[in-house]
Specification:
The chain is mainly β. Helices cover 10% and strands 49% of the residues. It has two domains: 123 residues, no CATH class; 124 residues, no CATH class. The chain has a 21-stranded mixed β-sheet that branches. A hairpin with a 4-residue loop joins strand 1 and strand 2. The radius of gyration is 21 Å and the shape is globular.
Length: 281
């Protein structure tokens, strides 16, 4: 593991655009409001602690070019990720590093060994090997343009994406997934967490919305008059649609196919054991 002195420097390789956001680095000055939000986020992290171990939390900030039109977030194990679409010209990345160890000094040293690698189109955390008494994780709050492609998979943390339209390829093993006012072409896969999707606009892109869930519930909300073809199935869970629909052929209790708003790109929902709900908002 590098010493604090070795990792306490932010380095930039211009041509490859690799930015290492290390402990103590300040690559981008924070606004007063941003600093206040960061302090609140850090304090919440410090309060929500395992009292058997010491905890150290810090927030790091960087900007990244929007060139390429796609953001991939990797290395998501136990941290949460929140991505917000906004009128921004660069991607703004806030990373909360949480480290736990037997003592405060060890926790701070552990956090110092964590690096957030932000290169063109990719954000990833790397750090020391963890063990039972020494553990670290990274959560993100990221601002992207409103029209942008995103790819990420989380193991145990929650995923929250709002006000973004594009190719969204998202996954979660055990955390909740919440999408608000999203559009475009969306593929979402969840194993054990619940899925809550609120669509915006009048219709999706041609590839539509594809949600696969094993054990969690799936709730999808569409605007009134939304144009789509619905193909929803739950093997063992309940099915609910809160607006009038027309079903041709045999009515199956665990499978619904219908057009709404005159039809359009497909909203496909497949759940093994969770309930499925489709509503208007």
């Amino acid at each position: 593991m590098r010493s604090n002195t070795e990792v306490g420097v932010a380095s930039v390789r211009i041509f490859g655009f690799v930015l290492l956001i290390a402990a103590g680095a300040a690559p981008v000055p924070a606004t007063a409001q941003g600093q206040s939000d960061d302090d609140r986020w850090r304090r919440e992290c410090e309060r929500d602690r395992d009292h058997e171990r010491a905890r150290y939390c810090e927030v790091r900030l960087a900007h990244m070019s929007t060139a390429g039109g796609r953001l991939e977030v990797g290395g998501l194990q136990n941290g949460d990720v929140r991505i917000q679409g906004s009128d921004v010209s660069t991607i703004e990345i806030r990373a909360l590093i949480r480290a736990e160890a037997p003592s405060e000094e060890e926790a701070k040293e552990l956090a110092g060994g964590v690096q957030i690698e932000a290169e063109a189109g990719s954000v990833r955390a790397r750090g020391p090997r963890t063990r039972h008494s020494r553990d670290w994780s990274v959560s993100y709050r990221i601002l992207v343009p409103r029209r942008y492609d995103i790819a990420l998979t989380s193991e145990n943390g929650s995923v929250d994406v709002a006000d973004v339209s594009g190719h969204l390829d998202l996954g979660s093993e055990n955390g909740e997934v919440t999408l608000n006012r999203v559009g475009g072409a969306i593929h979402l896969k969840s194993e054990n967490g619940s899925v809550d999707v609120t669509l915006g606009g009048a219709r999706l892109d041609s590839e539509g919305l594809d949600v696969e869930s094993e054990n969690g519930s799936v709730d999808v909300r569409v605007p009134a008059g939304f144009a789509a073809h619905i193909d929803a199935r739950s093997e063992t869970g309940s099915m609910a649609v809160d607006f009038p629909i027309t079903v041709q052929g045999r009515l199956e209790p665990n499978h619904i196919t219908t057009d709404i708003g005159g039809g359009g790109p497909t909203i496909r929902i497949s759940s093994e054991n969770g309930s499925v709900s489709i509503k208007t908002h």
